[in-house]
Design brief:
The structure holds 3 protein chains of 3 kinds. By secondary structure, chain A is mainly α. Chain A has helices spanning 22-52, 69-76, 78-110, 116-128, 131-141, 148-155, 171-200, 203-211, 216-244, 248-253, 265-275, 279-287, 289-306. The relative contact order of chain A is 0.12. Chain B has helices at residues 2-37, 41-44, 61-69, 72-104, 106-118, 124-137, 145-150, 152-169, 172-180, 185-196, 198-214, 217-222, 231-237, 247-277, and strands spanning 240-241, 244-245. Classes of the chains: A mainly alpha, B mainly alpha, C alpha+beta.
């Protein structure tokens, strides 16, 4: 059969190729997402800012401009100052604890052993399970009467019944409990991050270090740690942002108590703005989170960029 | 050599000790959850009993109570509906957006992608205040549909970013070949990019579903009517009569609600990791 | 009317011109090879012809019509990608049928053409397999069948042999060339391998730095290079280029022989000291230095092993070598050919 190729017949109609135009299609495709985000994140953000400088409450929804007086109000309020302080302690404490647990957990999970997959699946649970449900389990574990922790301590004769700590009723212990629960939630995520980072270190770099005489700890701290710092920093950004702004753990375990000892920014914003209906002061409290977040995110991104290998 | 034998044994023991430590640390609260849900109340509320195992035989009464005497099934249904609707909205929005940012917009696309992703970091405890006014304005207060409206604000950014990673991983020749072979860019998207990233899309669906199940702050803020609550909110706040916590039921409910999420995370863990760290780890 | 014709095509990525003014005409049925080193712009140029990139300026004509703003599917070109770009989720049959389906051709027509294309490429027995079940060579044939099934005005090939191992490459080269001659489709073939180019092209366009250095038949490119780049890029080992007062002169290793082997013709003599030699079976490559020029420059000679006595190539000794004047090439200071023979 004759196999001479012939020029193709051009399409008869000159349609406008609209579905081919890269720029047009690109814009149309992104539009819904951007619209959603602008309308339900961007605009509310602006609204929050405006609330914070107005005298808006749900009983008196006025948009009257009051300048920075809301911020002055909350800063003068000792409860707020304590909340701010608590939030930093809460975040700092749980992140550090979580990171340490995460680092060592990752080291343990690096080495293959029988049942490693199973252990790994279980270790992920605190992070995977909905925060409120895991918190409720801890709440039960810390129960003033039936705490299994107390039971164990008593059974081991470390303390007796009269000394049984009231985990959620004692201001310092309450803060400790909340920190522990948050660190417990965070450390599987930290393990995942560390594992991903460590396994990304090229084997030949590690081999070269071994040949050069570096032992286990030196390899760890002088070779691996610097190389995984960027990815750990990213994980830390997530951790800090979510911890600093969280209210679930505090709300469920202590409801901010006892007497505000565990009140954090997110929680107080909720109390003031939603429960009490004082929207403008609530917004001011919530907005306090922003500068800290911005500083943290920008600082860490800078840090990562400078360390790009 | 005896010395290395001893050192070796010590090392092994401390290693397995560490494994056990992490294992117990992570899993104990869940063990506690499980055992509480199956314990008789008389066993549960008795300080003299050993709490780690059953003293009275295990019972299903908490589960029965949960399903028969509480709104648990309603909450399950609510969560299912919310999850499905939010997933649908997210897919329809995030799939084209992710494709556009991955393939169609070049360097501006990178910046826009990061911008969209950063909105994921805007805390709910900041947005809930103005959003509560928006929800009230739309007359959706106290309805679970307020959550269907609000949840995509965080699922869309995250899923767009995740899907961007998946689309970028597709070899561009296949879409180019399709374009040369007669597809429009849109056709290449539908016929090539989507079918070939089904694993990624599946991951995103599962992940979105779990994100909606886990959410607490917006649910707490917008929904107080008991029959409109999603499951996490319901179990955590609604199984209380007066001052008394129905621990057995709470743990049973928490268990049921946690299991699917835990399974999903474990099945898709590797994919999540590569999606999340794909950009960071070069 | 040529099949493909370009007028001063320029493509800039940011400020950098990847393609810096290429005007080329490819008549119907020709096998045109775009030859050049990595990064020279040949692949970008091919993608512009295909429509996957849009040129910054300049005109592209296919079949006589300007197609600057027309998407790939309406240009009548077909492309075979370096990694084939087969659709992994389709069977081979569906892969080949796809370009016809997108044009809305009725099913019976499609089946006929798929049969024809698969017979042509000898892959009829593979029609129901998936790409991942095929070997490299089979995948290439499927890609080719898919490209040809539309009977395109031009067939564009992007370094098709680079994914094959060396053994397969030679036979694949044969097959593609024979195949193109049978079918007669205009073909534009991009490669960095000058052996492929010389062996397959009807004409070769040597490209460097986004510009065409020379277009011509393989013999012209080889014997009559337009500048130093073309002279040294084509030919293994490359042409010896020696600096002189006002430019350069060059001669190919196979033209650099012991004086005694050149009978009669006018030639230019050099005193040559051998430093080392390689015996390659069919030839002997000899490396050394010629007297009176840069002592660090290595000059190569390619000698037929049978006819050269060992004493001529003992390392360390000086011997008279010569180049026929007809084989000597002169270049000016810019590298361009000074006078063409």
């Amino acid at each position: 059969m004759a196999v001479i190729a012939e020029p193709i017949v051009k399409p008869a109609s000159r349609f406008r190729f609209i579905l081919d135009r890269r720029d047009m299609l690109g814009s149309i495709f992104v539009a819904p997402a951007i619209l959603y985000v602008l309308l339900l994140v961007g605009v509310p953000l602006l609204m929050a800012v405006y609330y914070s400088v107005s005298a808006y409450t749900i009983y008196n929804p006025t948009w009257q401009f009051v300048g920075l007086s809301n911020f002055v109000d909350i800063l003068e309020n000792p409860v707020f100052r304590e909340t701010l302080y608590n939030t930093f302690i809460f975040t700092f404490g749980s992140q550090i604890l979580g990171l340490i647990l995460g680092k060592f957990g990752a080291l343990v999970l690096l080495r293959p052993f029988p049942g490693r997959k199973f252990v790994r699946a279980l270790v992920i649970l605190p992070w995977a399970v909905p925060i409120a449900l895991a918190t409720v389990a801890w709440q039960w574990m810390f129960d003033s009467l039936y705490s299994v922790i107390n039971w164990t301590l008593i059974a081991l004769h470390v303390i007796d019944r009269s000394q049984a700590p009231n985990w959620l009723g004692n201001p310092d212990l309450a803060m400790l409990s909340v920190i522990v629960v948050n660190a417990w939630r965070f450390f599987p995520f930290a393990i995942v991050i560390f594992l991903a980072g460590i396994t990304a270190v090229p084997q030949d770099v590690l081999d070269a270090a071994t040949v050069d005489g570096a032992g286990f700890w030196r390899r760890n701290y002088q070779i691996i740690m610097p190389m995984i710092l960027p990815i750990v920093a990213i994980g830390l950004i997530f951790g800090i942002v979510f911890t600093f702004t969280d209210l679930s753990i505090v709300f469920l375990m202590t409801n901010g108590g006892p007497v505000g000892a565990t009140s954090v920014l997110g929680f107080q914003g909720f109390q003031t703005g939603i429960v009490s209906g004082d929207v403008s002061h609530g917004a001011a409290i919530s907005l306090f989170m922003l500068p800290v977040l911005l500083i943290v995110v920008v600082a860490m991104l800078r840090f990562i960029r400078r360390r790009e290998i | 050599m005896q010395r290395s034998g001893l050192v070796g044994v010590l090392r092994e023991t401390s290693f397995y000790g560490a494994v056990t430590f992490f294992f117990v640390l992570a899993a104990f609260p869940f063990y506690w959850m499980v055992i509480t849900s199956f314990k008789e109340n008389s066993d549960l509320y008795n300080v003299t009993n050993i709490p780690f195992w059953f003293n009275d035989p295990p019972t299903l009464e908490h589960f029965r109570y949960l399903f028969e005497k509480t709104l648990f099934t309603t909450w399950l249904l609510n969560s299912l509906i919310i999850g499905l609707c939010v997933t649908a909205i997210t897919l329809v929005t995030a799939l084209p957006a992710a494709y556009s940012l991955a393939r169609l917009t070049g360097r501006n696309g990178e910046a826009l992608g990061i911008g969209i992703f950063l909105t994921y970091l805007v805390p709910p405890t900041l947005l809930f205040l103005p959003l509560s006014r928006v929800v009230a304005g739309l007359e959706l207060q106290n309805s679970m549909w307020s959550l269907v409206l609000v949840y995509p604000t965080f699922t869309i950014p995250f899923c767009t970013w995740l899907l961007m990673g998946f689309f970028k991983a597709l070899p561009p020749e296949i879409e180019e070949a399709a374009v040369v072979d007669g597809c429009s860019l849109f056709g290449a998207f539908i016929k090539m990019a989507i079918p070939l990233s089904l694993p990624g899309i599946l991951t995103v669906v599962i992940f979105t579903f779990t994100l909606t199940l886990q959410e607490f702050v917006y649910a707490l803020t917008f929904v107080s009517a008991s029959d409109q609550k999603p499951i996490t909110l319901g179990v955590a706040t609604d199984l209380i009569r007066g001052d008394i916590f129905y621990w057995g039921e709470i743990m049973a409910g928490a268990l049921i609600a946690s299991v699917p999420v835990a399974i999903a995370y474990n099945l898709f863990l590797d994919r999540f990791i590569s999606g999340i760290t794909g950009g960071a780890v070069k | 009317m040529a099949a493909v014709s370009t007028r001063d095509i320029i493509k800039k990525f940011g400020e950098v011109p990847a393609v810096n003014g290429i005007s080329l005409t490819v008549p119907h049925g020709e096998f045109m090879v775009l030859l050049g080193p990595s990064g020279c712009g040949k692949t970008t140029f091919l993608r512009i012809i295909c429509g996957l990139e849009r040129q910054t300026s300049g005109d592209l004509l296919i079949g006589g019509d300007i197609v600057n703003d027309i998407p790939p599917r309406a240009r009548g070109v077909a492309m075979m990608f370096q990694s084939y770009g087969l659709y992994p989720h389709f069977t081979v049959r569906h892969n080949i049928a796809f370009p016809l389906k997108t044009q809305g051709i009725p099913r019976t027509e499609i089946n006929k053409k798929v049969e024809w294309a698969s017979q042509l490429l000898g892959i009829g027995h593979l029609l129901d397999r998936r790409p991942r079940q095929l070997s490299g060579g089979e995948r290439q044939r499927v890609a080719l069948a898919r490209a040809l099934v539309r009977e395109p005005t031009a067939l564009l090939l992007e370094e098709p042999l680079s994914n094959l191992d060396a053994k397969l490459r030679a036979s694949a080269r044969q097959e593609i060339k024979q195949f193109q001659q049978r079918v007669g489709v205009t073909t534009i073939y991009v490669t960095h391998d000058q052996v492929e180019a010389m062996g397959m092209g009807d004409r070769i366009a040597v490209i460097d730095g986004g510009r065409v250095r020379q277009v011509g038949k393989p013999t012209e490119i080889y014997d009559d290079p337009a500048d130093r780049f073309v002279a040294t890029f084509v030919g293994t080992p490359p042409m010896n280029i020696v600096a002189k007062n006002d430019g350069y002169f060059g001669f190919r290793p196979e033209n650099f022989l012991p004086k005694d082997m050149i009978n009669g013709e006018a030639c230019t003599e050099f005193n040559f000291r051998v430093d080392r030699s390689e015996y390659l079976g069919s030839e002997r490559i000899v490396y050394g230095v010629i007297e009176g020029f840069d002592p660090k420059q290595v000059i190569t000679a390619k000698l037929p092993p049978a006819h050269v006595a060992d004493e001529w190539i003992r390392p360390g000794e000086w011997h008279p070598f010569a180049v026929r004047n007809s084989a000597l090439r002169q270049f000016d200071n810019d590298g361009k050919r000074a006078s063409r023979h």
